[in-house]
Write a structure and sequence with these properties.
By secondary structure, this protein is mainly alpha-helical. It is built from one helix and no strands. 69% of the residues lie in helices and 0% in strands.
Length: 26
Amino acid sequence: MAAPLICPSILASDFSRLGEEVRALE
């Protein structure tokens, strides 16, 4: 969350990717 105002779409992508990684860990 360095610059959410610059590229919110990238943040959303990162969040989705993070969720997938967490699922993989579980």
